[in-house]
Specification:
It contains no helices and eleven strands. The chain is mainly β. β4 and β5 form a beta hairpin.
């Protein structure tokens, strides 16, 4: 599975960005779809994901500001990010797993920079 991430950029604090991740095959039965982010020198952290039950889950600092959605017809998972803060600055990676024990697939990363 190949994942193509897009949508990063430079935005002022309080602004919005929408990240998209397009998969090379149907995502309808994927076990896990999500977005991670990483700041240089830090561990990659899970920002939001949709699990096998279909519910969405968010990093505490993202709740109320970020919305994760999937479009099975387009094989995409998107992350709408509103009210962005400088601390949201990171490289964002989409991630997918077909099954619980399956190999994780990663997108190439898209950079988000939020200026104060």
């Amino acid at each position: 599975v190949q994942l193509q991430a897009s949508g990063g950029g430079l935005v002022q604090a309080g602004g919005s960005l929408r990240l998209s991740c397009a998969a090379s095959r149907s995502i309808i039965n994927f076990y896990f779809l999500g977005w991670y982010r990483q700041v240089p020198g830090n561990k990659r952290e899970l920002v939001a994901y949709i699990g096998s039950g279909g519910s969405t889950n968010y990093l505490d600092s993202a709740k109320g500001r970020f919305t994760l959605s999937r479009d099975n017809a387009k094989n995409t998972v998107s992350l709408q990010m509103n009210s962005l803060k400088p601390e949201d600055t990171a490289v964002y990676y989409c991630n997918a797993r077909i099954s619980q024990a399956g190999v994780p697939y990663w997108g190439q990363g898209t950079e988000v920079t939020v200026s104060s």
